[in-house]
Amino acid sequence: MANKKRIKVSKKAGLPPGALLHVGTQKTQKNSFDLISYNETDLKESTSPDFAQFAQLFKNENVNWVNIDGLHNVELIEKIGKNFNLHPLNIEDILNTQHRPTYEEHDELIFFTMKISGAFENDNVTFENISLVLGKNFVLTFQEKENELFNRIKERLRAHGPVRKRKADYLFYRLVDTIVDNYYVVLDNVSDRLEELETAVYRNPTNQTHHELQYLKKNLITFRKSIYPVREAVAKILKEETSIIDKQTLRYFSDVYDHTIHIAESLETLRDLVTGLSDAYVTNINFRMNEVIKVLTIISTIFMPLTFIVGVYGMNFQFMPELTWKWGYPLIMLFMFFVGIGMVFLMKRKRWI
User: Fold this and answer.
1) Phi, psi of 159, rounded to the nearest 5 degrees
2) Tell me: the pLDDT tens digits for 283-338?
């Protein structure tokens, strides 16, 4: 009997994406580890620094933004977590890309998990997980993969923008606000797609159109599940008094909260529109079917008396006067013609056609 291989249970804080592969087949993927340390007059930026030199790059008197792209190097993330006194459960939440958006505050740290909306392609809304940690003089961001969402913030930091004059809590706000504002881009794309589907529904509805509507509706439900927890988390920031975020910065979070409410309402509107278009599709298909049945019924009704006449003269009786009459055939054909015209006239008078 063949020996069975035992599967070792990992004692890590969490499993990275793709960890459910066979041992020896998982490819090693590197993390991008960036640090931006700045104040009002100075800014230093380091790309992929060695963790051993991290203490030299990190300045306590500055605002430090540590950005990690990629969650495959679990040991590196654990080192960063221990360095900033992150709870092991928070590290698990960082590595769990399917984690629900949430907000936690403990030990003078704020932990915030959100969903970044990706490109809207083929009626599909993609989302990536991002975790943000706010401390007294630092902000940590953990992303599934590298993207260009925060490039504008980096450019403003390099250009001595107003972010340089603020503390770490303001940088934390700008990151959250950028993620929320990116939801509007997806909403605009979904709205444009709905206009295309609306035109297809009323001009040339097909089964493919109906499938696309249902698929889009499913993605809107997924979008809704991502934005509602974010709204709750931002509301929690506004309600709870914390020393990490200044009162002036909390006013900016009120604007973010208003945006989340507007996005949630827009999602409900879009979902209602999709439902309305689905109903319109069914109504349009039924209307077209009724029109076809109506035409067929009219044709059948017109030919019903004609079929009766043909049936009568199709009987094989020997003594039928019209059969031996010279003008019998033309007369019957003329009679059938006027019967058909009379049936059409009767239907128009009854307003059936």
Assistant:
1) -95, 20
2) 888 888 888 888 888 888 888 888 888 888 877 777 777 777 778 888 888 888 88
Pick the CATH number of 32-284 from 3.30.460.20, 3.30.300.20, 3.10.450.350, 3.40.50.300: 3.30.460.20
Report angle CA 93, 95, 99 to the nearest 5 degrees.
45
Who's near 6: CB < 8 A, 6+ residues apart? none
In the chain, domain spans? 32-284, 295-349
CB atoms within 10 A of CB 306: 15
Amino acid of residue 307: T
Q: The whole model's pTM is what?
A: 0.73
Quick check: do 32-284 and 295-349 share a fold?
Answer: no
Residues 6+ positions from 111 with CB-CB distance below 8 Å: 86, 87, 90, 93, 102, 103, 104, 105, 131, 132, 133
What distances in angstroms separate CA 47 from CA 180, 221, 237, one per listed residue?
26, 38, 31
d(CA 243, CA 87): 19
For residues 219 and 268, give the distance between their C-alpha atoms in angstroms, rounded to a whole number.
12
CATH number (1.10.10, 1.20.58, 1.25.40, 3.40.1350) of 295-349 reads 1.20.58
Tens digit of each residue's pLDDT (9 = 90 or more) over 154-190? 888 888 878 888 889 999 999 999 999 988 888 888 8
Half-sphere exposure of 11 (CA within 13 A, CB side): 0
